[in-house]
Recover the amino acids of this structure.
C-alpha cells in the first residue's frame, strides 16, 4: 500500500503530520528569536507583487491568487512583528489599479472589507500584537461600505502603540507627495489674523506686541528664526506651523494697529516660505511619524518602485528585488534578506567606527 | 504547507473561513490562531509547555527552571550560527559573481569601437530613450582606480560614449555631491575627446552637457571645439547623432521639491494661486522642466540597491538595474542593463 503512494503525496502527508508541523513551528520561532538578537529594521515596506502571475501559473482564479497573497502577508507580518519591526508598510492597492477589470477591483475591495471586518472582530488579539492599522491613500476613491470597515478597524486599533501596519490603499507616491506639498502650502497661507477667535494659548499678546516693537526697532527678524527652527524640527506638524503663523500674524496686525504708518507688506502676515524644509514636507507625508524606511522588498522580480514610497526610500533604504512571487513569500525567502541587511548594517557600523578612529588619530 | 507549519485543516480554515463544513465564529477563529500569537509577556515562558520537545530536553535539562535565560542563549547561538553560515555564503557569492562578471566582460568588450557596441545592441527589441546612471565619488583609491574627480570624469566619459554608440539620446548622470557641476566646461572637453577617440573626429556625435539650475553654462548643440572644417560634409552624410547629458546631484531631488513648495506657498500667500490647484500634473510639469523627466532605466554600479538621494519624483516607473556584488563602472553592467530592459514589459498597474 505504501508503495502505491505517490511520492509527493507521501511527502505532503509527512509534512502535515502533527509532530512535523509542530517542529516547523518551533523552528520558525527559533529563527525569529535568533534574528531578534541583531539589529532589526525599524520600518519595512513590501510591494506585494505577483499574486496574479501566481494564479496564472497554478491555473487558479485571479481572486484566489489575491487570497493566497493575503495569507502570505499574514505570515510575513507575524515574522516582522515578532522579530521587532516597528512599522510595516504594504502596497495593497495603487490608484493605477483602478484601471484593472471591474470584476477584479470589486473582488479586491470585497476582500479588503471582509478582512478588515474580521480584524475588527478580534480586538483582543490585535492588542496582543499591539499593532495599529492605518490606511494611507486617497480615501475619496473608496466606496463608502469599504470605508466604513476601514474606519472601524482604524479606530479600534488606534490605541496600540507597539507597532504600526500601514496599508497603502488607493495610493501612489506621487499623489502622496502632491498632497504633502498642497498641505504645506495650505498651512503656510492659512492665518490672516482676523478670521479666528483667539484660543487660550500659552502666549500673551501684550508680550508679543512688545517683542515685535522691540524687533522693528532693532530690525532683527526674530520671528522668522522662531518659525524656522520650529519648521526645521522633524516633529513639527501642521499644527505647529499654523500656530507659528497665527502668532506672527497676530503680532503684525496688532502692530499695524498700534503704529499704522509702518506700512508692512501684507505678506508679512504669513509664515516665511523660506522656512519650508525637506522635513516640513516629510512631516506632511502619510508616513509622517514613522521611523525612516530601512528596507523595501519587492517580489516577483520586477525591478521598479512603481510609484511606491518614492519620497521615503530615496536615500538610505536598502531596496531588495526578489524573484519569488508574493504568495510564495515566507520566512524562508525573507530570512536571507534580513540577514544580509543585518550584515550590511554591521559592516557600516564597523566602517563608521574605523573612520571615527582615523579621525581621532 | 511543509514550510509554514500550518496543518491542511487549518490552512483551509484560514482560507475559506470554514472548518468541517461550518462557518467559523470569531471565537473559533481565535482558538485557531492561538499557536501563532506571541506570548502574553514576551519571552517570559515557553509557548507550549504541554508538548515537551525532545531536542530541548536533550540539550538542556534545566531548561524548565530557567526557560527564558536558556531561550536567550539558544537564540544568541542560533544567531551566531546563522550569521557565520551567511557570512561564508556571502563571500562565496561575491567570489562567484566576480568570476561571472569577469567572464561576461571578456565576452562583451567594446574595444572602444562603436561598431562592437552597435552589434551588442542590435538584437534588442527596444532601447530606453532616457538612461540614468548613479555614480559614486570615491575619495580614496581602494577600488578600481576610479578615485577622485579624474576617475569620476573618466567614468562619465566612457558611459557617454557607450550611450552614443548604442543610440541612446539622453543620459542623466547622478552624483550625490554634484562635483561635476562645478566643472562643466572641463567635463565637456573630456567627453568630447573621448567621443572623438571612439568615433573619430568626423563621425563624432554632437554633445550637449547641462545641469539643472545652472543656466549660465548650457553649451549649444554644437561642440565647443567646433569641427567647422567638417561642417560642409555634414549635410551630405546622415546627420551625426546627438547626445544630451544632464548632471544631477542630491540638490535636484528633495531640495528642488522644497523650492517648488516655497514658490507655491509664496504664490498662494499672494493669492495668485489656489492651493487646491496644486495637482500631480502641475508638479510633474514643473519638475520635468526644472530637472528632468522620468528616466526609463536607472543603472547602478553599486553592489546593492541604494538610491543615495536620487530625485524621488522622477523614479516612478523607472526600471532599476544593478548587478549584485558588482563594484565600479564597467561595460558589462551597461550592456546587461540594456538587455534586461528590452525584455521587461510595462503594465502601468493593469
Amino acid at each position: 500500500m505504501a508503495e502505491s503512494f505517490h511520492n509527493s503525496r507521501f511527502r505532503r502527508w509527512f509534512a502535515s503530520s502533527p509532530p512535523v508541523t509542530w517542529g516547523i513551528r518551533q523552528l520558525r520561532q527559533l529563527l525569529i528569536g535568533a534574528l531578534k538578537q541583531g539589529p532589526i529594521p525599524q520600518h519595512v515596506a513590501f510591494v506585494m507583487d505577483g499574486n496574479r502571475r501566481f494564479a496564472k501559473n497554478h491555473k487558479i482564479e485571479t481572486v484566489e491568487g489575491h487570497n493566497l497573497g493575503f495569507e502570505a502577508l499574514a505570515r510575513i507580518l507575524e515574522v516582522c512583528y515578532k522579530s521587532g519591526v516597528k512599522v510595516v508598510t504594504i502596497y495593497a492597492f495603487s490608484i493605477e489599479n483602478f484601471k484593472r477589470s471591474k470584476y477584479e477591483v470589486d473582488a479586491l475591495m470585497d476582500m479588503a472589507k471582509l478582512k478588515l471586518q474580521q480584524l475588527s472582530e478580534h480586538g483582543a488579539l490585535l492588542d496582543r500584537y499591539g499593532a495599529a492599522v492605518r490606511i494611507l491613500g486617497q480615501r475619496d476613491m473608496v466606496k463608502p461600505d469599504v470605508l466604513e470597515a476601514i474606519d472601524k478597524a482604524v479606530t479600534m486599533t488606534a490605541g496600540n502603540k507597539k507597532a504600526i501596519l500601514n496599508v497603502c490603499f488607493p495610493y501612489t507616491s506621487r499623489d502622496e507627495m502632491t498632497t504633502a506639498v498642497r498641505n504645506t502650502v495650505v498651512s503656510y497661507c492659512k492665518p490672516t489674523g482676523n478670521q479666528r477667535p483667539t484660543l487660550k494659548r500659552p502666549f500673551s499678546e501684550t508680550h508679543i506686541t512688545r517683542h515685535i516693537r522691540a524687533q522693528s526697532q532693532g530690525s532683527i527678524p526674530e520671528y522668522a528664526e522662531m518659525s524656522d527652527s520650529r519648521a526645521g524640527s522633524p516633529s513639527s506638524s501642521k499644527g505647529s506651523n499654523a500656530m507659528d503663523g497665527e502668532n506672527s500674524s497676530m503680532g503684525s496686525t496688532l502692530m499695524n494697529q498700534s503704529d499704522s504708518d509702518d506700512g508692512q507688506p501684507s505678506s508679512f502676515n504669513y509664515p516665511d516660505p523660506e522656512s519650508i524644509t525637506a522635513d516640513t514636507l516629510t512631516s506632511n507625508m502619510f508616513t509622517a511619524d514613522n521611523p525612516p524606511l530601512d528596507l523595501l522588498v519587492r517580489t516577483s522580480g520586477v525591478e521598479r518602485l512603481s510609484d511606491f514610497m518614492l519620497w521615503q526610500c530615496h536615500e538610505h533604504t536598502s531596496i531588495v528585488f526578489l524573484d519569488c512571487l508574493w504568495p510564495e513569500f515566507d520566512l524562508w525567502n525573507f530570512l536571507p534578506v534580513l540577514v544580509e541587511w543585518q550584515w550590511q548594517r554591521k559592516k557600516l557600523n564597523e566602517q563608521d567606527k574605523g573612520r571615527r578612529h582615523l579621525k581621532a588619530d | 504547507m511543509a514550510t509554514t507549519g500550518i496543518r491542511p485543516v487549518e490552512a483551509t480554515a484560514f482560507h475559506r473561513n470554514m472548518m468541517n463544513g461550518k462557518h467559523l465564529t470569531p471565537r473559533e477563529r481565535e482558538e485557531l490562531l492561538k499557536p501563532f500569537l506571541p506570548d502574553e509577556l514576551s519571552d517570559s515562558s515557553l509557548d507550549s509547555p504541554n508538548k515537551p520537545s525532545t531536542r530541548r530536553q536533550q540539550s538542556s535539562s534545566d531548561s524548565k527552571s530557567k526557560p527564558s535565560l536558556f531561550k536567550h542563549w539558544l537564540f544568541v547561538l542560533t544567531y551566531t550560527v546563522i550569521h557565520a553560515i551567511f557570512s561564508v555564503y556571502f563571500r562565496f557569492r561575491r567570489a562567484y559573481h566576480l568570476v561571472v562578471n569577469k567572464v561576461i566582460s571578456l565576452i562583451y568588450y567594446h574595444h572602444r569601437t562603436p561598431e562592437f557596441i552597435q552589434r551588442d545592441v542590435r538584437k534588442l527589441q527596444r532601447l530606453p530613450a532616457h538612461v540614468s546612471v548613479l555614480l559614486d565619488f570615491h575619495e580614496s583609491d581602494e577600488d578600481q582606480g576610479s578615485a577622485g574627480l579624474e576617475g569620476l570624469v573618466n567614468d562619465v566619459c566612457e558611459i557617454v560614449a557607450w550611450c552614443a554608440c548604442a543610440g541612446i539620446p539622453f543620459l542623466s548622470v547622478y552624483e550625490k555631491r554634484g562635483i561635476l557641476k562645478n566643472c562643466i566646461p572641463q567635463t565637456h572637453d573630456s567627453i568630447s575627446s573621448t567621443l572623438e577617440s571612439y568615433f573619430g573626429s568626423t563621425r563624432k556625435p554632437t554633445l550637449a552637457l547641462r545641469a539643472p539650475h545652472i543656466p549660465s553654462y548650457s553649451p549649444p548643440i554644437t561642440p565647443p571645439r567646433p569641427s567647422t572644417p567638417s561642417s560642409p560634409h555634414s549635410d551630405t552624410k546622415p546627420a551625426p547623432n546627438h547626445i544630451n547629458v544632464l548632471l544631477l546631484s542630491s540638490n535636484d531631488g528633495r531640495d528642488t521639491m522644497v523650492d517648488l513648495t516655497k514658490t507655491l506657498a509664496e504664490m498662494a500667500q499672494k493669492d495668485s494661486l489656489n492651493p487646491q490647484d496644486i495637482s500631480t500634473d502641475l508638479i510633474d510639469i514643473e519638475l520635468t522642466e526644472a530637472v528632468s523627466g522620468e528616466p526609463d532605466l536607472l543603472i547602478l554600479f553599486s553592489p546593492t540597491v541604494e538610491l543615495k538621494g536620487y530625485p524621488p519624483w522622477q523614479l516612478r516607473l523607472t526600471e532599476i538595474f544593478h548587478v549584485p556584488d558588482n563594484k565600479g563602472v564597467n561595460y558589462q553592467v551597461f550592456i546587461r542593463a540594456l538587455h534586461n530592459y528590452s525584455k521587461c514589459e510595462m503594465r502601468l498597474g493593469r
Q: What stands out?
A: Residues 40-65, 221-239 of chain B have pLDDT under 50 and may be disordered. Chain B touches chain A through 81 residues (CB under 8 Å). The CA atoms of residues 170 and 274 of chain B lie 35 Å apart.
